[in-house]
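Can't attach files on this board, so I'm pasting raw text. These are the components:
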Amino acid sequence: MKISPLQKARYEYEPKLPGMLRNGISEISVKEGEPTQSVADQEKIQALFPNTYGKNEITFEKGENTAETKKRKVGVILSGGQAPGGHNVISGLYDALKASNPENELIGFKNGPSGLIEDDFIVFTDDYIDEYRNTGGFDIIGSGRTKLETPEQFAIAAEVCKKHGIDAIVIIGGDDSNTNAAVLAEYFAANNSGVQVIGCPKTIDGDLKNEDIECSFGFDTATKTYSELIGNIERDANSAKKYWHFIKVMGRSASHVALECALETQPNICLISEEVAAKKMSLSQIADYIADSVEKRAANGENFGVAIIPEGVVEFVPEFSALIAEINELLAGEKAEAFNALPTWKEKYEFIENGLSKEAMDVFKILPETIQQQLFLERDPHGNVQVSLIESEKLFSALVADKLKERKEKGTYTGKFNPLHHFFGYEGRCAFPSNFDADYCYSLGYNAAMLIQYGFNGYLSKISNLSKPAEEWVAGGMPITKMMNIERRHGEDKPVIRKALVELDGKPFKFFEDNRDKWAVETAFVFPGAIQYYGPSEVCDLTTRTLALEKE
Amino acid sequence: MKISPLQKARYEYEPKLPGMLRNGISEISVKEGEPTQSVADQEKIQALFPNTYGKNEITFEKGENTAETKKRKVGVILSGGQAPGGHNVISGLYDALKASNPENELIGFKNGPSGLIEDDFIVFTDDYIDEYRNTGGFDIIGSGRTKLETPEQFAIAAEVCKKHGIDAIVIIGGDDSNTNAAVLAEYFAANNSGVQVIGCPKTIDGDLKNEDIECSFGFDTATKTYSELIGNIERDANSAKKYWHFIKVMGRSASHVALECALETQPNICLISEEVAAKKMSLSQIADYIADSVEKRAANGENFGVAIIPEGVVEFVPEFSALIAEINELLAGEKAEAFNALPTWKEKYEFIENGLSKEAMDVFKILPETIQQQLFLERDPHGNVQVSLIESEKLFSALVADKLKERKEKGTYTGKFNPLHHFFGYEGRCAFPSNFDADYCYSLGYNAAMLIQYGFNGYLSKISNLSKPAEEWVAGGMPITKMMNIERRHGEDKPVIRKALVELDGKPFKFFEDNRDKWAVETAFVFPGAIQYYGPSEVCDLTTRTLALEKE
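---
Top answer:
Structure tokens for the assembled complex are below.
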């Protein structure tokens, strides 16, 4: 078997473009919008982007295409973690370029931004592209995490572009990659290289969104895949009636994935990192919050449940971050050697007890021993605790077990608590894109080609009105600088695209907040099932609950 | 939201019956086949089942229905682990009973076989059944693992049946539950209770199959769900190009699930427990086998891959089983106290070193410390090692890392090895049944009702010719005793249904064996994607590769 039946069938799928892009290239004209300003720190951003700042927002509409039809060569880069639909961005870009001028060429730099620096690429052909249409993954050219951000890298990039006669680069990436796309665009403009840079908003985390970008691609497919699995586990929990499932989902800095999955599946518990931070919740408070649900459900004879835990949540617990900071300090430099020399965990524990503040020790003491040891024994090359290795799903189930033990002694809880653990991340990043992501991504790529044809530089390909059918989507472009502000990174002021966290006064969280007390006690599980590509439209074409609530 | 769009849409699905059951109840007649013999130990089995042994195989065909049309009351039980399609067995049974006689009644015993003993049931109605059609899970009445096997339990069961006027019991379960169904059938026959027992073959493990039962229900959906996830991870591996994914899948005693997933997704490695046992492979040999693939792929610049590990594989490694036996012996009774009293792991290790044989110690030494500790510190109430807790996916990745370290020192290997771990089990047991499982299960239930109407007892509902379209399926019944042999269980001779292991000379394994060397080195991944319920038939209606190969 070379390819699966579904893959074969998906090759035939024709992604839907926004209505205004459906009339053929010759019937796409530009409608100029207003000049733009960055979301904050306008003067500083303008000073950093003198050539690309303040440009107009634009939309496309039906009308005579007035762009130059010269032959163009475009390079495309996949940057960072995989997201379903990347292949469709490339095929949309390819189709629009070829439709504009059959002599246009699209090349793909291999394995991420480093491909540009290393002058390592392939030239796309019909046959090559056809094997990747409507499929998941970034394997069409590979992805990578090299950051393009230094003047030296930019100079090499300019040279590579000149050498091959490249007119434009399309960077498919998240907030960091698109920030770097803007800086590269400014560099090209400042040096009159004539090379344009266009970004496309990618990330399953959903944290690249703002008043212009309604959602990043991949979020829809990834959350639908996780929700399928969570729903299946909920149904298993409700059938076997004997396990509490603690399910960690991807999302280091923002909890959009966890929240969307909760809206889709209505679990008993879903932690939201942004809320934990805002309310300065302690580990003990969080454990009590979960234990309350376990206890109330047990009182109803339901010794089972499902809790969703966002990957990064412990980093949002203030007392935990403080503990980590103290541990990093305690083991800095030579002190680590003294610690490492201690032969037994008992002696190490005494060292820790003497070294940490009382507040930090109070937090340390309630952790399960495996996590205590992990914090001290598995450190990165700089000697720092590797917070990302902490299995938060196991941490919280252990803390909840402790709480329940206390409650059992007090007599308030008489149930049984058998936790099981899951982590869903890699399962969703390369799924076949949902119809929504297939359409959205193809449109992003097609639209990027139009932005290139019309000579724009430093723009993000923008498709909006996404909660409506594709026919009503709006295609256009937005200067990336509009989304920027200044943030302190590694002790320096840097212009960056503001990362979108879950807004606690936003409609998706509010909806969750209004319902979660009921979900915590009742069994209100919803089972979304596997992503469907065929069949009734309400099953196949709806995007996320998050977007629906935001746009309602 | 009360139910998902897919669930709503699936309510409308009309499961396909075998052609011969499509003419209405009044047009279903019995064709008697040959008398049957048990697969082995015929005399002993016959002696144990004097009233139900040796009955004829039967098939249904189009013809005048000659069965009695008296009003009947039937009870149904879900036994053991969840499998997709259980709800359809019940709805098929319900629909056939109501079509036979609208006064017929179907009741469901709650939470497994214990519901029968505890006289705890619900009465099914149209409205109730309609909420569960074509959905996953066993939440319609719950499941449980209580075994019905003692004369005392049977006596209570007979009483409950008498009290409610129950004419027949349908038991939906795996090999053990159907074994017990046969024993109960014999009991009812011996006591002239007039109650019939019919079994239905359920298990995602796929190990309830034989020359009569082509596959158990749920295997198709569960393996398709795992294959979706494995394919997604393969695509991620091939995009990021930096991780080796070790994926454990369910299957304690047989590796059908692992093998089917491998046939669907073509990973680099798939261990088959039955082969490990047959070849008496050591942990070191298995680790070398995997490390060979890692090394060869690294030589091609591919420092990534996917390995499937069946859940129970370590129990099939002879030297490991011997080690476990020695540990259980070493800690039996009072000796555990001496061991537990030792304060440090170092002292415990010395105790172990003195207590184990050289052979056992050689195996113990190569284990990662976390697993060494787990073997000694986490024991069941009888003091035995809990083999099921061993995370085999982590065990093998650790052993492979050791092998690669050696090879690096020798200079034969220069790659990078970053393992990640997954376990898929609960994600697939309650998925919405595939069209195949929806059709198969509905047919099993419908067919069970016909077996009841015609007065059969101790039969398994049998639907065959499953690799063909449903129209061509063959419906009938097989005496459960035909599948039995005598096995030693807990020191006693017991009549049991022979568990089907992966046959190393069977076509599915042979196909795997013929291809795996290529798959181990090349990237031959196949991405099945999510189960589709609508769309092209070749995407939606095909059953497993295992069945296709077995029937080709």
